[in-house]
């Protein structure tokens, strides 16, 4: 039977933050749909566990943990490193040849809790219960809530703007497909239970480091209240998840290393096979959702290693990263600030903003999202149009805390953005997207790169109008690109005339200059074969870590 794999709470709302707070390990791809608060699905059998990260950890046990007595006698009171009858270095009698029964599962959970306490230097306030549900029961549990039409339309506009989901696609459904059909379980903050979904409830199987990841989410919820994290933008969710998922993934990495060292022979580490790139409905969208899992562990490690203990990580829950940039560049935390962009409504009465109850009417994409927008052609074209080459993406490999680099020239220098979706009476959609840069030269460089991206998708310049394009196909309609100092303003509508309905300054008369075509030097060594290998590598590395996340 395949082992249980986790998919983290945050992983479900990592994209636009439209999912309620949940906690789990990474799996297929986040779903930008409503989820019951506290529900964090963990995909079962859809990903492989991560390779042992490159950690410089002399001992997995913190100085906070109590030294167990030689005979493992239970302490007179609950102490750090002991849980429900088990010390962190105590053996557990488990025969999992035919799966774990309820007694064996409870014992493994208790010892794993003790080990998580000893590593993370935080104590579980209450024990985490384990509930077994059949797959039919899970399907009837309505973990995913209903998505309103306004929210679905908002999502569609957002991901079409990022050129990750086409005009004829449903962004919510694509994300659900990426998530995968096989859910192995999730942590429910509302009940303090880890729910295991199994086709055979009498023979449950999963990996102990994955269990540790999920238990970290339970610990986070008890100590820091995960339900209060409710970012509603891509960038905000990636920032929150960088801390939440980074914490759980970093602890899991230490745990996994200990299973190959001081705890060798005592860990249950069976892993499942991961998906290939072809198993995903949308690989670029998957890569965007994976960013907190790639950069988050290194961010948390930076905080932990700066102080030599976990105090800085604990304090980070009171000063959560404001932007995914602070996770991408840990040295900028906690002082990074982005431009204060406003979004005045200059549209005619023919257009209205898409209103989502309880959240703002604009989104913030963030630097990793812009990076993914330019990386997508590399994977879609087998390397024929590499705006971002393999060498710019693969950072440390499967053995690294931070395997991918979500920073490259087309997106570096980002200083904030605001994407405002609109619709008209015919239910046609458009948007106004302001993107701030750290300098006018970086804004000009982005505008030029964006023009190249439009041309890659076969956009044609409109005669007599400056930096205005029309495009057929997946990302059809009209585009206007304007440069104002260090801010680039992109307007998108079904027709050129409608561009001006959204923004009276859009599609001005004149010649294109800021988006004029540049001679693009080929990126050395990134041919079709390399791109294919890169795609497979992305799927495998991401799958490995995801299987152990939440």
Automatic annotation (TrEMBL):
Signal peptide bounds: none
Domain of life from the UniProt record: Archaea
| Listed Low complexity bias regions | 48-60
Q: Where is the composition biased (Acidic residues)?
A: 506-521
Which residue ranges does the record annotate as region Disordered? 27-75, 502-523
| InterPro entries, alphabetized | Hvo_1808-like
Q: What is the protein's name according to its record?
A: PGF-CTERM protein
């Amino acid at each position: 039977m395949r082992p249980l794999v986790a998919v983290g709470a945050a992983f479900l709302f990592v994209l636009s933050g439209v999912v309620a707070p949940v906690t789990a390990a990474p799996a297929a791809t986040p779903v930008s749909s409503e989820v019951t608060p506290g529900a964090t699905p963990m995909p079962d059998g859809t990903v492989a566990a991560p390779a042992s990260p490159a950690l410089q950890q002399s001992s997995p046990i913190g100085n906070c943990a109590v030294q167990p007595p030689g005979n493992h006698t239970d302490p007179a009171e609950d102490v750090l490193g002991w849980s429900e009858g088990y010390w962190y270095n105590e053996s557990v009698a488990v025969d999992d040849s035919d799966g774990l029964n309820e007694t064996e599962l409870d014992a493994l959970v208790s010892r794993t809790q003790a080990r998580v306490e000893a590593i993370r230097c935080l104590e579980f306030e209450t024990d985490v219960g384990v509930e077994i549900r059949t797959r039919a029961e899970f399907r009837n549990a309505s973990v995913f809530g209903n998505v309103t039409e306004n929210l679905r339309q908002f999502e569609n506009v957002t991901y079409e703007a990022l050129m990750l989901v086409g005009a004829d696609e449903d962004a919510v459904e694509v994300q659900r497909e990426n998530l995968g059909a096989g859910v192995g379980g999730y942590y429910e903050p509302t009940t303090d239970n880890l729910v295991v979904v199994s086709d055979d409830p009498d023979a449950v199987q999963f990996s102990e480091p994955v269990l540790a990841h999920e238990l970290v989410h339970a610990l986070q919820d008890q100590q820091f209240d995960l339900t209060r994290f409710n970012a509603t933008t891509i960038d905000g969710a990636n920032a929150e998840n960088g801390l939440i998922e980074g914490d759980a993934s970093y602890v899991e990495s230490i745990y996994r290393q200990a299973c190959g060292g001081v705890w060798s022979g005592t860990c249950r580490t069976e892993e499942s096979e991961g998906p290939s790139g072809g198993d995903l409905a949308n690989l670029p969208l998957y890569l965007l959702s994976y960013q907190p899992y790639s950069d988050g562990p290194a961010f948390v490690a930076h905080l932990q290693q700066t102080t030599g203990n976990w105090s800085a990580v604990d304090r980070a829950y009171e000063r959560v990263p404001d932007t995914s940039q602070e996770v991408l560049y840990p040295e900028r935390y906690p002082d990074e600030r982005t431009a204060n962009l406003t979004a005045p409504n200059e549209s005619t009465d023919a257009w209205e903003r898409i209103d989502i109850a309880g959240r703002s009417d604009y989104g913030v994409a963030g630097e990793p999202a812009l990076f993914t927008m330019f990386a997508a052609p590399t994977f879609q074209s087998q390397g024929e149009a590499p705006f971002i080459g393999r060498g710019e993406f693969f950072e440390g490999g499967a053995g690294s805390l931070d395997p991918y680099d979500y920073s490259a020239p087309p997106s570096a220098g980002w200083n904030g953005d605001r994407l405002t979706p609109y619709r008209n009476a015919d239910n046609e959609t458009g948007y106004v997207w302001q993107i701030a840069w750290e300098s006018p030269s970086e804004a000009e460089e982005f505008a030029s790169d964006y023009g190249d991206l439009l041309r890659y998708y076969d956009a044609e310049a409109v005669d007599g109008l400056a930096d205005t394009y029309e495009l057929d196909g997946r990302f059809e309609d009209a585009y206007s690109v304007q440069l104002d100092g260090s801010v680039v303003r992109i307007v998108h509508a079904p027709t050129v005339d409608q561009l001006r309905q959204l923004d009276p300054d859009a599609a001005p008369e004149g010649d294109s200059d800021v988006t004029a075509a540049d001679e693009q030097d080929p990126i050395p060594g990134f041919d079709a074969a390399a791109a294919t290998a890169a795609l497979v590598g992305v799927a495998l590395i991401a799958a490995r870590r995801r299987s152990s996340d939440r």
